[in-house]
Amino acid sequence: MRDAATRYHLHNDGEDGVPRRRLHLRWPVALLLLGGVGVGVGVRYSAGQAAAAPTQVGACSNGFPPAFIWGLGTSAYQIEGGVNLTGRQPSIWDGFAHTPGKTSNGDTGDVACDHARLFRSDVELMRSIGLRHYRFSLSWSRAMSWNAARRRMVPNEPGLRFYDALLDALLAAGITPYVTLYHWDLPQALHTELGGWHTPYNAPMHAEFARYAALCFGRYGGRVRFWATFNEPWTFAVEGYSLGQKAPGCVPTGPGPCPDGDAVYVVGHNVLLAHAAAAEVYRREYQPSQRGLLSMSLNCEFSLPLTPSREDAAAAERANEFYLGWWLQPLLSGDYPAVMRQYLGARLPTFSRAQSASLQASIDVLGLNHYSTHLVRAARPHELGDQWCSWIADQRLYSSYGAGWPQAASAWERAYPPGIRLLLRWAAGRSGARWHGDVLVTENGWGCNSVGAAAAAHDVQQQEYLANYTEQVRLALVEDGVPVRGYFGWSLLDNFEWNDGYSKRFGLFYVDYETQARTPKQAARWWNRTRHCSEKREAGV
Length: 541
Ligand code: GBH
What we know:
Layout: H1 2-13, H2 29-32, H3 47-52, E1 69-73, H4 76-79, H5 92-97, H6 115-128, E2 133-137, H7 140-143, E3 144-147, E4 152-155, H8 157-172, E5 176-182, H9 188-192, H10 203-220, E6 226-231, H11 233-241, H12 263-290, E7 293-299, E8 302-305, H13 310-333, H14 338-344, H15 353-360, E9 365-369, E10 373-378, H16 390-393, E11 397-400, H17 418-428, E12 439-443, E13 448-449, H18 453-456, H19 460-478, E14 484-490, E15 504-505, E16 509-512, E17 517-520, H20 522-530
Parallel strand pairs: 1-2, 1-14, 2-5, 5-6, 6-7, 7-9, 8-10, 9-12, 12-14
Antiparallel strand pairs: 3-4, 10-11, 13-15, 16-17
This protein binds ligand GBH.
């Protein structure tokens, strides 16, 4: 299995006719405002030039251009705790985590990293490793409250003030905020009272999301110039509404609001339309004066064919379309990938002409989250293929990992560093009406099992994963000409790893949940030592 992937990789790596893109540094002024990334932006270079003489692009000693954005990420429910502070109301994750048997060890995000209280010292922590870019999410159920009489969400001033304070602390520390509006924590009332993401064509939900987005753009847009609407719609659609592992925990065969295997596609459709509605508001009312960028963070475990056969190559391409194209293609062309329509027929919802148009213009930059790679083979005519949820069953293929790929704490995470380069190429090889390939890696990281702080401080595996993966990102940039603008490691802190509770640790800082002490791991020291730009000195210069 490993050989097949290596072959594929080598095949695509050579001078084999794979089209190389010109790397245009043509981001709007907004990017210059993203905190100190102006240096070197005047340089234009092509992939060819860069490949021939990478140091001519003004490389830092880590091999990246000075303008490259290095950041770390977190999300609200995973770190904030303070579930009853600032008038916060429950989200579907409160309900899910408090349901016995849903998370490992019965863990919940009630306290998490207590960041709602400790955010000022966490900003100091960021400073301690020289962090300049920080990605985090807002909790919708902290920023707004359900008003039962009006049957809608209304602003929650104390919650909004919390994010005011956080943003002010970040900016005072010279750290640029990258804000995600929705990292899976749907207000419970919107799920229960308004039909949530699972009700077909739920226009009231699209409108609620657009109002929430507008509230945030209006209040914070002077301080935030990078917005993502959703984080990983794939994960909450598939794992939340078909697999049942994540909130709201729907499984098609169980009780609840997911009567059949089509719920994932209904959820996806609503999420895309909610994103488009928010984008319209941003374009019309905020972007002209705020000059920020709009994005969505999509995750993809990239699929490579298990064998060189035509069927397996087609299966890998199909898997990538179902994983990433499901979201990316509508954002580019206003419609789902043809292969999804082919396999799903009328089970896949359709967009009106106006909806297509609003989707096509809805991102300026793509966020990509990536952790692992899959090897796939086509199911033969008499075979069913993987069946672990409807989304995978629909694809008629079998998915596996390369033998010998190092295994992280989570069963789904195996390291195959070239996968990120191939994914970046696959994604940036497409472009649409408005988006032309600019990418930020918004998540990548290595989860460890729970060990003591002392052992974590010397964990080399995490550092190796980050070093190997960032090197592949560098190759995508300088060798392949993919316009990848930045890389956000996951995560700043160990945190509430969803259904895995606190048992998996992705942080660069170890968190002792008894004392809330944070200890830098080996990877934090590596980050501080290597991810800042010190100019590369040529011999004799
Ligand atoms: C991201 O989720 C989240 O954004 C973040 O909150 C989380 O803490 C972090 O990553 C680490 O998990 O296609 O069968 O191999 C990633 C969640 C879980 C999504 C594993 C993809 C792979 C399923 N991922 N899943 S499969």
